[in-house]
Amino acid sequence: MGATDDGRSGDPAVLGVPTDAEHAPADERTPADEHADHAEVVRVQAERLAQLEAIIELAPLGIGIVDLEGRTPLTNQTLRRLLGYTAEEFARMPFSEFSHPADNPENMRLFARLTAGEIERFGLEKRFVRKDGTHLWTYLTVSLVRDGSGRPEYAIGMTQDISDRKTLEEQLRAAEAHYRLLVERVPAVVYTAEVGAAGRWHYVSPQIEQLLGFTVEEWTAVEGLWFDRIVDEDRAEALAAEERIDPSENPPHGVTYRLRHRDGHIVWVHDVAVARAGRGGGSVLNGVLLDVTYEKVLEEALAQQAILDPLTGLVNRAHFRERVDQALAASREDGSPVAMLFIDLDGFKTVNDTLGHGSGDDVLAIVAGRLASAAPDECMLARLGGDEFAMLVEGAWTGRLPELADRLLEALVEPVRVRDRAVRVGASIGGTLAGPADTTDTLLHNADQAMYRAKSAGGSRFLRHEE
Hints:
The protein has 467 residues and is of the alpha+beta class. The chain is 39% helix and 25% strand. It contains 16 helices and 17 strands. The protein has helices spanning 31-58, 77-83, 87-92, 104-115, 163-174, 180-183, 207-212, 216-221, 225-229, 235-243, 293-307, 317-334, 348-355, 357-374, 401-411, 440-456, and strands at 62-66, 74-75, 121-129, 135-146, 152-161, 189-194, 201-204, 253-260, 266-277, 283-291, 338-346, 380-385, 388-394, 416-418, 421-423, 426-433, 461-464. The strands form four sheets. The chain has a five-stranded antiparallel beta sheet with strand order 2-1-5-4-3, sandwiched between helices. The protein has a five-stranded antiparallel beta sheet with strand order 7-6-10-9-8, with helices on both faces. The chain has a five-stranded mixed beta sheet with strand order 12-13-11-16-17, with helices on both faces. α13 packs antiparallel against α14 and α14 crosses α15. The N and C termini lie far apart (99 Å). Residues 1-24 have low confidence and may be disordered.
């Protein structure tokens, strides 16, 4: 083929055969000596070529030498057995004639780059068309060989039969019956079902009983049982996700929603499915239900940690400011009133000084609970830090700030018992009503100023901000 595997010509020195320089001086050599050297080179080359041909012929991979026109003048028996063509047919046909139409364009594109010298090798999964018309999935690796001048000379193609793996992948996605033994060992619910709220479930793995408390027979016998177990608020999203699945698309689609267990508790699932055309013209879903309840609970707990004060369980300062920002933005849109109360405890410093900070934390937690119990549902109570609290007031209560403040003060009348001690803690409360130009900062400032006036007046009272 004009070159060895490393791209150089068949030089005797490269092949390990002694050269003229390794023999006696040129003036002492005879024509017979030169003829013997040449014969040795030919013999070694023939032996190595025979060895290479034997290795190629016996290799478990299909191997072919491909010329720059895409024909395969040299093939091994594995390739001929895999595809069913004779050596003469391979040599006559370009590979495009026995490539699957869907895979041929990419193969041709890469081969063109290879023969142009832009790349040295490429690999891809593709289907070949056997002589009997059937298709064979393979992984094809093609490497370029250059001549002694560095120009592309030919390519070596190696073909690995991956049809078994491809078949397994397709059958797993489809969850066909003859793979039930395998899918039933997966730690998830595997199913085949018709699309829609009333769609029948043709197959569901036994894990459905562990997940939702229903046996396989119960789940597949009742039409619409899946839809019936979805939490009402999640039904529209679950159905919409099914409708988006297109049988002509390969990527699976996923949606997360809540199902009610047979005993009533909520189970979060992530539903991942692909669709294929059914016999009646509709679509059949092949999917997996994964229990993600633990992840959802953890996610919600982490989200709560981000917005709640760890000591009192009230909204923290950062989230409170966000909510006030939102309320003020809505107020500018629709004119709805917004107000704020600023609450500072009276006598709390004495608690810390006499009983210690540990007892002080206990008092704060108890006081926060009392204030929260007295707060209307439409008002948001937050701990700003230390013994300072604030309340976002919306709706009708914005016009009843004194009454609301009295409810909070009344909640603190009874002494707080901590570590066998009765501690009295009051509060000074300042209030302000938002104006058109007010921001969260101005509301906090105005309510804070009113609170200081209340504290200076003796505490345990409410004063409104003076405009």
